[in-house]
Every structure is written in structure tokens, then in C-alpha cells.
Description:
The N and C termini lie far apart (49 Å). The chain contains 3 helices and 9 strands, in the order H-E-E-E-E-E-H-H-E-E-E-E. It has one domain: Ganglioside M2 Activator Protein, Chain: A (Distorted Sandwich). The chain has helices spanning 2-17, 91-100, 102-112, and strands at residues 20-31, 39-46, 51-58, 65-75, 82-90, 115-116, 126-133, 147-158, 164-181. Helix 2 (91-100) crosses helix 3. Strand 2 (39-46) and strand 3 form a beta hairpin. The longest helix is centred in the first third of the chain and has 16 residues, at 2-17. Residues 9-17 have low confidence and may be disordered. The chain is of the alpha+beta class and 196 residues long. The protein is globular and about 50 Å long. It has a 5-stranded antiparallel beta sheet with strand order 1-9-8-4-5. This is Reelin domain-containing protein. Keywords: Signal. Residues 1-19 form the signal peptide. Pfam families: DUF1091.
Amino acid sequence: MNSVLVVQVLMALCSGSLAEKMMRPKFKEIKVWSEEKMVSHKILYDNSDPHLNFSMEVHQPLHDVDIHFEVRITNKVDPYYTTTLNTTLNVCRILNYANQSPVGRFVHGFMREYGNIIDTCPIPKGSYYINKFWWPEDPTSSILPELEVDIHFEAHLLDASKKRSLLMNDHISGEFVVQDVNNLKPGIFAMLPKTT
């Protein structure tokens, strides 16, 4: 009887010791909007086994597309420490870079493992998706302060005169919190090729 109790206690202690502290997102709200004549899309996030699913149906070829990100990151303990990032990128230029640069090929190849992603411009009519994507993690992120995050994403179709038409308008809000996890995704160095 005592040996059964000892085994149960050891199993409980070992399972608890497998958990690591990790900073992970908890998204409170994901709102998406698409110009349905041109494109439709969905974003889903699973907090329990953290991964992101993105699907997009392109209904008409898209000849030139800009994507715009606005990200606000705020320290939860002291909101005085806030970072705001704002950038606009052209999808065709990104794809050209991905095809010419070793770093671009590495990142593009990494993303391709998760689904059917855009790799030509103009973007052809069709289905594109990323399933069960999760960026590599590192336990050292648990020493960072917990954060609130607000992400605004837009995609614009550019015509020949560079006039913009809104294709997508998404808003994601949530927080990055330190939590115990037992399903750590490998860190960035695990992505590097293995040598023998």
C-alpha cells in the first residue's frame, strides 16, 4: 500500500516539474472584415494548445496589394512603458525578397510547412491557409513584463494609379501573460539545420 502511495506522489511531482514558465498570448477579441467580392478570410486562435489558423479565399486575382500593421504593446504593470509600431509593406516586394534572399527563403520555407501560402504576385484566385502555426518559443520570455497588445491589420488593393481599396480590416486585442506550460514549442535555435 505504501509503495503505491509513493509512486503516486512521485508521478504528481514529476508531472508538475515538466511545466515551464512561458509568456504566451491570450487573445480577448479577434474581429475580421473582408471585402467579400474580392477576398474572404478567417483567423482562429486556440489558447489551450496555442496555435493560429488563418484561411483566405481569393475570389479574383489581386495584382498589387499593400499590407498595413499597427501594433501597440503596453506594459501591464506600468502603462508608461508603451511601444507603438506602424508599417506598410507591399506583398509583391516581400515575395520577391523571399525568392531572392537566403533569409527570405528560410522564413518562407518555414511558413510553407504550415499550409498553402501565397508565393506569387499577382496573387492568383484560390485558397490559402496556415494551420496550427506557432512561432518558436523560448522560456527566457517569462522574465519579461506581462503586456497588453492591440493589433490592427489592413490589406489594400492598389490599382494602376496606386489608388487604394480596402480588402481586409482586422483587429486583435489581448495580453501576453506568464503561465505554466507543458507543451513548449522549440526555440529559434531548434529551427536551424542539424549538422552531424
